[in-house]
Each structure stands twice: as structure tokens, then as C-alpha cells.
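Review box. Two proteins, two foldings.
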Amino acid sequence: MNCVFTIMPIYGTRPEAIKMAPIVTALQNSDQFECVVTVTGQHREMLDQVNEIFGITPDHDLNIIQPRQTLNGVLTRTVEGLDRIFEDTPPDAVVVQGDTTTSTAAAIAAFYRGIPVIHAEAGLRSFNLFSPFPEEANRKITSQITSLHLAPTATSKENLLREAITEEDIVVTGNTVIDALLHTVEQQLPFTDPQLEEIASSGKRVLLVTTHRRENQGEAMRGVGRALARIADAEPELTIVLPAHRNPVVREAVLPAIEGKPNVVVTEPLAYGEFTRMLSVAHVVLTDSGGVQEEAPSLGKPVLVMRENTERPEAVTAGTVKLIGTDEERIVTEVDRLLNDDAAYHEMANAVNPYGDGKAAERSLAAIEQMFDVGRRVADFDSQA
């Protein structure tokens, strides 16, 4: 009988769940591995929604979330919860995703137990330790204790090589977010909010906005609110859709300026399936989210990013993403340009996706099989191919 290896994907937030889902599915469908899914519940409802779309039932749930939790609280509760599981049933390897505090805590907990770490979406770098905070530090820490680096792009592989990571431990897979996106958009999931169903069928132009980044909270975010109010007044035919993050700090900063505007629709955070459908409906996307920078180009949508730097430079180079920072005037100017200058719009809307081709999970699985000597790697993802 074949020896079956136990692989434990560990994740805690919605973005991790989305990007981990295709890998979980690939592991579950493989004869070589038993896949034991552990969630920390760093985001609660939003995490559960994603697991539902992909039909994933976690085997372990640490449920660590607490109101106004601190990063140190997330870290220590994750390490303690995982340590109990590792003591009882240590897996042969763990898979962590990206750069959340959950992922770094899980990597440390596994490493200290002598369990190999597989890092999905490895090698992203903004080259500023304090921005995005704490993600840049998280991903650098995780890289130091990882045995197999699943880098989404050639650029991320180069970043790892520059940090003296062994080349044979790095595989370029493409980003699993594209696998997840294509799977989900295909389903055309209905909106639970009837307003959104109405907007989608109205054919009106939509500006989709998301904002939550820790380093933008406070005055920068109030500026975003004021900018949206000015755009709403200047473009009465435009509908602005803002799924508001649950964090009260975010809501208190952004919402006062746009209250009562007839063409601004504020919703609760959208379930992943609804969000991807909203992306496909949107005309322009304004965001400070990392993942959206990868998803929107697949659907041919221009993305304006309210950040000063990004660890995802590939789409900036490809021209589908533009970094505009959080200055109120600049946001108003850049959105106006995309709404009213067709040439500028079409230049950004050409759907070249440097991030993936929908086969990232397949490449990831092959790399994990080779790690355990039960299979062979396949050719790396090449965005030029």
C-alpha cells in the first residue's frame, strides 16, 4: 500500500481562503496526500463564505477572533492553538499562504515542531519593512523558515534568489487567485442585495471601491471619503459601490462624507462570489487591497491603487494597475480621467494578466509531490508564454 502523506493547509482570513482553496481542492483530489484543513478564524463570516463556495469543510477550527484584536494576540493564539494540534497529530508538512499574521504564526509553530513549511504566494516584496504593515515583515519572516517556496511570478522568484534562498526550493506557479477567480466567475453567483442585482442589470457605469489597509486608516481614509463624495457629485450617472469593511475604524473614517449621496451604494462586505461578479460588472476599480490588483486585470478592468508602494509590480508594469496613493485631489483626478478619457481607459483595460493562467494549483501540487518523492514538477508558469 502507498504511504499517504498528511498535508495541512492553514489559513485564517478571506484572502488566504480564496488563494488556498484551489490548492486544497488539488490536494483533496490527489491519491498521494491526505489533506487536513485547519482554519484559525482570524476573519470569521468572510472566511466561512469562501469555504462554502469551494465546498471545503475545515477539519480544525481555532476560532481565535476577538473584538479589536491585536497582532500579538492573533500571533500567540494561533501558535498556541496549532501547537496543541501538532502535539496530537503532526502533519508531514503545512501549507501557509501569503503574508497575514496567521500565515507567519502557523509557519513558526510548524517550524518549531520540525514540520516542513510550504509557502504559497512566496517572494512578494515592497522593499519597505513598515509598508504594508505588518505584511512585508510577515512574508520575510516566513521565507526564512520555508522548505518549499511557491512563487507566483518570475519577479517573486527573483526576490527570493536575491535573499539567498536556494533555487531548487523555488517553483513559479502563477497565482492561485486566478484559478479561484475563473472557477467563481463562471458560476455567476446571485447578489443577496437586490440593489446590486438592479445595478448589474441597469447597464450603468460602476466604480467599485474597497478600502481597509491599516496604514491608510485615519486622515488618509477620511480623504478617500471626501474624494468619493466629490466624484459622486461630479458624475451623477455613475454608481459608486462601496462594500464597507467591518472594521469600525474604517467605517467611521470613510462613511460620513458619502452619507445620503443618491448614487453611492454602501453595502456590507460582499461574499467572495458576489464580489467577483461585481468586479466583472465594474467599469473602474479603486482599491487599496492586494488581491484585487491581481483579480481585476484577468477581467480586463483598470485598477487604481490607493497606496504609495506595492509588492505586486507586475500589473503596474503591464499597465493594468496604477499606483495613485491616498491624496484626495489625485484620487479625484485619476478616477475622472478613466471615466472621461476613452484612450486612457482602453490603454489600461487590455486584459493581460501577468499573475496566472488558472493552473497554479496544478503546478503547486506537482511541486509538493516532488518534495515527497511521489511525483515530478511541471514547467514553471511563464507570463510571456
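Next protein.
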Amino acid sequence: MRVLLVCNNAFLPGNGVCTAVLSLSRRLKKMGVESRIMSCANPNPLGIQPDYPLKHFKFPLFEPLISASGFMYAKYDEEVAADAIAWADVVHLHEGFPMEAKVARLARKMGKPCVGTFHLFTENIMANLGFKRARLLNFLVTRWWRNSVYNHCTHVHCPTEIVKKHLLKCGFKSEMTVITNGMDIVDSNIAPYDPSGDPIEIVCVGRFAHEKSQDTLLKAMNYSKYAHRIHLHFAGKGPCQKRYERQAQRLLAKGVINHAPKFGFYNIDELREILRRAYLYIHCAYIEVEGLSCAEAIREGVVPIIAEGEFTATSQFALDQRSIFPVFDTQALAERKDWWIEHPEERVEIGLKYAKSITKYNADDAIRQMIQMYEDSINQC
């Protein structure tokens, strides 16, 4: 079986879609399935390049914002696309943008089946553009994605049930297949936390962007009884970093916190080491299709506190209400943090349960389901 993976760019660090595409390619190879990537050329000349490179399509007025958001659009090239589709048995589209729409139409014309993954709510895009409450615009863009891309697919891969419910509500007609994006399950040595040790390390992982809402954690420090003992560690990069750093400095200047929050972007091994030293993991995003960064923290035995809302699926990882707070509710978040700080023994006990709970998101199981979806798509064509 030969699978063509199509996205605007597969090589931008800190971009969830890029991470998913490269991980899928690597895992398909592990399972003996050949895959190739069609996307923008890798901006890093020393890095791996796509099998079918496309030129970068720039929007003159919006390019600085697009670039700061960790994204890049590809310019459609019919000659390149035709060559790529001719090679493939099935085409896997990873976004709903104009380039993918043209690929979907060409694949249909050439008699090749398409499947699509719904990695992003349109609300993700609008939040990055500063439109937090653009219901009509979100509706119109979702309808365009549906009609131009996803309804041309035999199957739509939904990483979570919340995505499937949303797409059914929006009138998507293709068969919905719920498969986690999955992650590698590895053995972790979970060390008991010393309740007398300070500072208390609390970690938040994710791109610094509006929809990730890391400022909710910073604001919650104003309501925590233990703010002076807490050291916040933000792992990621993105357009909101400078604003969050200024917000952290104000907390420090006012004496709300004693330990300066740390901001940085880390490789996988560095991040795992940071997580292993964490007392709690906080996930504040109010728009999230799955949120595997949270699952990766849980894998290390770290107890999470996760925002729950209409457009975030990450609360699926929570084992009970002590690990959930309503999106944007800074006081509720502070209360959850304080409770876990006051109950260190319970934190160690449930941390072990969390580490065991995450095995159902095993990437090997997910990739086998993905291969079955490809086979079903090919058989329907």
C-alpha cells in the first residue's frame, strides 16, 4: 500500500499538524506501509525534504501573522500533484485549505480515493486571527471545508469523539472514523514527590497562542494560597510568548510569586526530563482537537488539571473532577492546584493510575486502525 500524505507544511517545529504528519509517516514505515509527503519545502535546508515539494504561497498583508502563528501555506502545483497522486493508492489530506481542495478534486478525477484528518477546528484559526467570537465566520469556513475537501473523502479521521460530534452537527457526510493520533508508550520511572521540597514545579506545554490560553494559569496565581512556593515552567513557542513573559514579570514585581516563570522550547528528551520533575501539569486550552501534550505528561505520572469546554477534547484524559476546571475560570484552577498541593500522598497515588490509564492511546494500535481505514477507502473506490 502506498499512502500520499498532503499538508501545507510538514516541517515547522511546534506545529501540531506537522508533528502528526511526520509521526504518521514514521509509524507507517514501521508497519511496512510506504508513504510520501507533499507539502512546502522544508525551510531548514539541512533538514529532510518532502517527496513532492511545493512552493510557499504568501499572503502579503497577513504573512507576518501567519508566520508568527507557526504556519505556512503551500502553492498548488497541478503537475506535482498529478505525479504524487499517480504514485499513491490512497491520498490522505490533513487540512481543509484551498491546496487540499484542489488535490481532492484532482484525485477524484484520477480515480484515487481520499481520506481526511480533521486536525483543526475553524475556531483555532479565528482565535489566532484575534476573532474569539466569530460564530458566523466559523460556520462559513467550516461549511467551505466540508463541501470543498472533506465531503470528497470516503472517510474522515476524527482524533476524538468531540470532533466527530461537531462534524456530524455541521452536516459532514463522509464516514467518520475515531482514532487517536496516538503516542509512543514507554516505561517511565515515576519518583515519589518530596512534599517538603520547594519550589513546587508546575508545567504547561503548548504553543504560545490565544487558543492555548496559558495566561489563564498566570492569572490563577493571584488566587492561589501557595503562589509564593510555585515555579511555573512554560514549554513551547509562539506569537503570544512576549505578552506572557510581561504578564509573568508583573506577577513577580507585585510579589504574587517569588520564582520567575520559565519559558522555552525543548526537544523530546529535554521535555520528558522537565515533566519528570513536575508536581502538576496544567492544560488551559479552550480549543483543542485532542491535546496529546497532556497525554505525554500523564505518561510520566504527572497529575493533570485540564480545562473543560465546548471545543476542547483534552478533558477526556481526566480520571475525576479534581483534574478538571471550566475554561477561563482562574479561581477554579487555583482551587484545584491548591488542593493537590495540600494532598501530596493522593497526588502520588493517582499519578500512578494516570500513567497506566494512558496505554489506550498507544500509537501502534492507532496506526493499525489507520491502515484499516486506508484499506476500506481503497475498497470503496
